[in-house]
Amino acid sequence: MGRLFTIWGYIRKYKYVAAAVIFLLIIGVLDENSLWVRFHRKAEIANLRSEIEKYQAQYDEETAELEALRNDPMAVERKAREVYLMKRPNEDVYVFRDVDPSQIQSLKRPAAKRAQAEEAAQDSASVAEKPDSLAGPAD
């Protein structure tokens, strides 16, 4: 009981500090509109605004492209050539694609080395199959 009186006396002595700490705890962390929640909401709003700007720029770009396709026959031809690889009857189309650096190295190898590599790959495949065939009949 004596301990309870000492705690109560401490609270009575520092009641304004205790009230301020409780108030800051409620305002800062515990409330659904606390400073912590407001900070996160402001960050989310900033992210959403930047996303809106990105989509607005994309919309404007695609709207301009659509208008060009509606009004300019050369734009339609350019789009057909670039996207759908269409051509006129007297033309040839060459398509360049991205290649991995590992594929470039294999393309640079001389034909003899490529043939050796293919043979080695075939040999390793046949070696992998041989143990099964050498097992012999089951006794």
Number of strands: 0
Task: Give the number of helices.
Answer: 6
Estimated helix fraction: over 70%
Shape: elongated
- Structural class, please? mainly alpha
Strand proportion, as a percent range, falls in under 5%
Radius of gyration: 37 Å
Sheet of most strands: none
Distance between the termini: 90 Å
- Please provide the ordered H/E string of secondary-structure elements: HHHHHH
Q: Residue ranges: pLDDT <50 for 5 or more in a row?
A: 132-136
Q: Average pLDDT value?
A: 80
Q: What do these coordinates show?
A:
The chain is an all-alpha fold. Helix content is 78%, strand content 0%. The protein contains 6 helices and no strands. The chain has helices at residues 2-13, 15-30, 35-71, 73-84, 101-108, 111-134. Helix 3 packs across helix 4 (73-84). Residues 132-136 have low confidence and may be disordered.
Looking at this protein, list some descriptive labels.
mainly alpha, 6 helices
Topology:
Blueprint: H1 2-13, H2 15-30, H3 35-71, H4 73-84, H5 101-108, H6 111-134
Helix pairs in contact: 3-4
Quick take:
The protein contains six helices and no strands. With 139 residues, it is mainly alpha-helical. It is elongated.
